[in-house]
Amino acid sequence: MAATKIIPMHINKGKTIAQSLTDRVDYAKNPDKTDNGQLVSSYECSPDTVDAEFALSKRQYFQITGRTQEHDVIAYQIRLSFKPGEITPEEANQIGYEFAKSFTKENHAFIVCTHIDKKHIHNHIIWNSTTLDCTRKFRNFWGSTKAVSILSDLICYKHRLSVIFNSRPHSKRYNVWLGEQEKKSNRDYLKEAIDRAFEQNPKSYDEFIALLREDGYRVVPGKHLTFAHPRQKKNIRVRSLGDGYTERDIQAVILGNKVHSPQKYKKKSEKTTLCFQG
Q1: CB 108 within 8 A of CB 35
Q2: DSSP character for 129?
Q3: Which terminal Cβ of the chain has fewer Cβ within 10 Å, N or C?
Q4: Which residues, 6+ apart, have CB-to-CB distance to 14 below 8 Å?
C-alpha cells in the first residue's frame, strides 16, 4: 500500500463551508469511480449527507468554543493506493476504513471512497477536521507524513499486502511503488497538481488557485502565472509547462471552453522491489 501526505481542505473563495465540502466530497463519491456508490463507507456520518453533517459540526464548534480561525481547515484527505491485481475493491475499502478509524483514533467522522477507474485501486479518505464532540480540531502535526506511512505499512503487513522496501520520502513513494513512471521533475509535479485541481471541476480561477494551495503551491506575483513550492529551488511559470497547461489553457478549461487532458508518463522499465509478508 502506498500513502500520500495529509492534504488539508480549505473553504473555496466565494463559497460557504457547505458548498466547499460538497465540491470535494462529490468528487470522492463519484458513482462512475465507486461502482455507483457501492464502494463508499463511512464512520459516524451518512455518505448521503456527509457534507451537511461536517458543516453542522463547524457551527456547533463555534457555539461551544466561540473560536474562529481565518483560512480554517474544514476537512483533511489522504489517498491510499494498492498494487494492481493484489486486492479487490471491497477489501481496499475495508482496509481504508481500518486505516482511517485507527489514524483518527475514532474521534472524527470520515468517509472512505474506493476508486476503481484506474488500473490501481485507490482510496480517497476524507475526515472532518472537527471532533465528534465538536470541542476540538484535528491539527496536522510535524512528522504526520511519516506516521501515515508507518500505519499504512503496518496494516499492509497485517493483510499480507506488498509494501515498499527501504522506502523514500512521500514525494517519490507513490510513483516508485506503482512502478508506472520515470523520475519526475518539479514541472511534472506541478502538472500533476493542476491535473488534480481540474479533477475537482473548479468553477472559478480563485477556486482553481485554492486547490493548488492545498497541494502546497503559492502564486508568485508578477505578469505571468507563476508557482512556488517548498520542493522547488526556482519558481515555475505555467507557460513553461507546455500545451494544455498555459494560462490560456487553464482559463479555457475553467470557463468550460476546453476539456483538460492530463499528461501521460512513460512506463518505467526497471524493476520495483517489494516486500511481502507470509
Answers
A1: no
A2: S
A3: C
A4: 204, 206, 207
For residue 76, name the pLDDT band (cuts at 50, 70, 90).
very high
| Per-residue pLDDT tens over the stretch 213-225 | 877 899 998 889 9
DSSP-based three-state secondary structure for 230: coil
Helix (H, G, I), strand (E, B) or coil at 190: helix
Helix or strand (DSSP H, E) at 214: helix 205-214
Dihedral Cα 178, 183, 189, 193, nearest 10 deg: -20
- 33-74 pLDDT, tens per residue? 999 999 999 999 999 999 999 999 999 999 998 887 656 789
Assess contact for 149 and 164: CB atoms under 8 A: no
Alpha helices in 16-143 (DSSP H): 17-28, 50-65, 89-103
